[in-house]
Amino acid sequence: MNVPRCGWRRCVLNVGLLLLALSLPQALLAQWKASVGxxxxxxxRQALAFLxxxxxxxxxxxxxxxxxxxxxxxxxxxxxxxxxxxxxxxxPGVMVNNASFDGSSCVTTPPPVTGQTFTMQFPMRGNYKLGxxxxxxxxxxxxxxxxxxxxxxxxxxxxLAAKEKTKLLADADNDQKETSAHHHFANAVKAGTSAVVATxxxxxxxxxxxxxxxxxxxxxxxxxxxxxxxxxxxxxxTFGTEPANPMPPSANGxxxxxxxxxxxxxxxxxxxxSGFIVAALQERIGLSQAxxxxxxxxxTFTKVERIHIFVRCxxxxx
Length: 318
Fold this sequence. Notes:
The protein has helices at 8-27, 154-169; strands spanning 31-39, 45-51, 54-58, 62-67, 75-77, 99-100, 107-108, 117-121, 126-132, 139-145, 188-199, 202-208, 223-229, 238-239, 253-255, 261-265, 272-273, 296-301. It is mainly beta. It has an eleven-stranded mixed beta sheet with strand order 6-8-4-1-2-12-11-13-18-16-15, covered by helices on one side.
């Protein structure tokens, strides 16, 4: 009986083809790319968005997000029904480098810096909500599907992200109106504003991070008031020395009867800091009613002679 045999070279070739066949599916797994946030050249406009905010991929594939702005945006995937915790707490816990998410446990990144990247692999099919623990109106969706044709490719996502970025940063609704009709203070300054837009997959927002009427002329003894009309990002108002931690206010202030924070400046050498000034929080069905909080900051200027004081706006970790 003749048994077919292979020579040494032929056997090596067959083994090589077998190894190639075994490794081929892994090599075909795509590495998708997206970005987090965008900003104008003067940093005054901050697009708080995942770009794009909806992506379709295959199970086992991964997405790498690149952070494009100075404002912090932790990339976070929570479990279904999980309580949203403050960003300082995280999931709890954070993943510094690459991670994997299948819906069984939450994953979030630390506050990143511009230019950093974070890669997430998705080993199981499903529809996973993406969010930023700092900005509640910044969400998206990742659809993880079984092997099949996908509706979009990487060039489509790049084009979609560019269009979303341009649209957000070009939004001019109300950002140049110096004061709103509801201001009851004559010397009022708008310390920020925003626009929130929704898509089928989540919410994006634009924050205008600057004082929209930044020059105010008042008389000695009068009071100026700063308000925040941005429901997403809390600004600060600082005269003099900028604090290392922008969150708490300086100790040389009081609270007025209507809840506004109030301070007095008598000299160009005085230092006053507002802490975060937050617009009145949004109420949501099913949650406890939120407190009003400190939504206004007032300064009374007692100096008799004319003085010029430059005010800074310090955003989160700015």
